[in-house]
Amino acid sequence: MSAIMGDPLAPARSPVAGGEGARQLPLPRAGEGRGDGRRVNAGFLRRWTGVVVAFAVVAILVPIANLLVPADSVFHLSDYAVQLVAKIMCYAMAALAMDLIWGYTGILSLGHGVFFALGGYAMGMYLMRQIGSDGQYRLPMPDFMVFLNWKEFPWHWALSNSFVAQMALVVLAPGLLAFVFGFFAFRSRIKGVYFSIITQAMTFAAMLLFFRNETGFGGNNGFTDFKRILGVPIATPSMRMTLFVITGCTLIGFFLLARAIVGSKFGRVLQAIRDAESRVMFTGYDPLRYKLAIWTFSAVICGIAGALYVPQVGIINPSEMTPAASIEIAIWAAVGGRATLVGPIVGAFFVNGAKSVFTQYLPEYWLYVLGAMFIAVTLFLPGGIVGLFRHPKVLALLRRSADREAGVSP
User: Fold this and answer.
1) Quick count: other Cβ atoms within 10 Å of Cβ 341?
2) CA contacts within 13 A on the Cβ side of 87
3) How far apart are CA 118 and CA 175, in angstroms?
């Protein structure tokens, strides 16, 4: 079969001169190869320049603008702005995870909010233990446990006072759930809208479970009123900025890792599964392993994003597991542009930035705006915001600009 169809994942081969069916290829004109090389180098530099600029903004400019620039200066960045950007960067990680499975693998999940929340709850358990006796009841147990008249911690809180153990749980809890769920779903060849429905059912069931007080997760109120992390008060400017920088660097790191995955053979197999899964099976590849690996990895990304989200926002509760929260993650990826990596990040910032403005001035209209935004993108902008820059006219303009910078004549 492979001899007839060929390997769709193998790079295209140019015919050899003199071989059967070969045709004589025109030789490049003088200077043409040199111009193409300069254009490739310019594209390479632009990609890495963006990464370096993003790192400089996160690790240098924002700390200076927030901590060193006087509050009455126009260049000062307020604590509220720092917290808002940090929160959106956590959302951007979840959107990036969604792009890996939806944009590059063709798996639409409407349950990634549960992985985000599990990572947040794992971090929240540690932060609740760090409160110690500084709670309202002045007892060494979380206030909600004292209120429920519990005398000892539940079994799943056994290692909650260990930072290392809880950070391991941040990865293991969403990763294990995704692995088990994905194994049975992909082995049963559930795909398309049916897979989306069962992922939504999964997150809804988890939400109902975490709403119950007897589970030991704070019920409807969840975890809040955090005091310290690693013995350092969370409210201090230095700790707040440390968390911001860690979040930004983690987002950049996941972006680079995702770009490496997409550009590898593994990534090409994922895209082939998205486009023609049955043909991938006929060529000898097992889609189950590839889909399960990227599905689990995307869940881990969401778990780490949730863990970074909780200490900066100051609360985690079952509302993060609602189906609406998972649908929003998909909207961020769609608005920014699927299968682009940078698009979901842009979409997360664009949508949540708009949400911050509308919920402050016109809160009653935000859901209508969000719905209209998603419909408009679906009908008129299927490539998302980033897709605008892939329009032929825009590409031609950018290419001419790059040629001028590289000194290549048109």
Assistant:
1) 22
2) 17
3) 10
Question: Rounded to two decimals, what is the model's pTM?
Answer: 0.86
| DSSP conformation letters of 147-186 | HTT--S--GGGTTTT-HHHHHHHHHHHHHHHHHHHHHHHH
Centre a 10 Å sphere on the Cβ of residue 170 and count the other Cβ atoms it contains: 25
d(CA 71, CA 65) in angstroms, rounded, equals 9
In whole angstroms, what is the distance from residue 221 CA to residue 317 CA? Answer: 6
Interval 330-379: pLDDT, tens: 999 999 999 999 999 999 999 999 999 999 899 999 989 999 998 999 89
Cβ distance 350 to 336 under 8 Å? yes
Query: Contact 119/307 with Cβ under 8 angstroms?
Result: yes
Q: Does residue 316 come out as left (phi exceeding 0), alpha (psi in the -120 to 50 range) or beta?
A: beta
Q: Is 301:101 a contact under the CB 8 Å cutoff?
A: no
CB 95, CB 329: distance < 8 Å: yes
Distance separating the N- and C-terminal Cα atoms of the chain: 45
What is the C-alpha separation between 351 and 374, in angstroms, rounded? 10
State which H helix or E strand residue 315 sits in. Answer: strand 315-316
Q: How far is CA 161 from CA 124, 153, 310, 355, in A?
A: 11, 11, 16, 36
In 153-299, DSSP assigns E strands to 223-224, 228-229, 232-233
* DSSP tag of 216: S
Helices (H), 17-60: 32-56
* CB within 8 Å of 84: residues ≥ 6 apart: 356
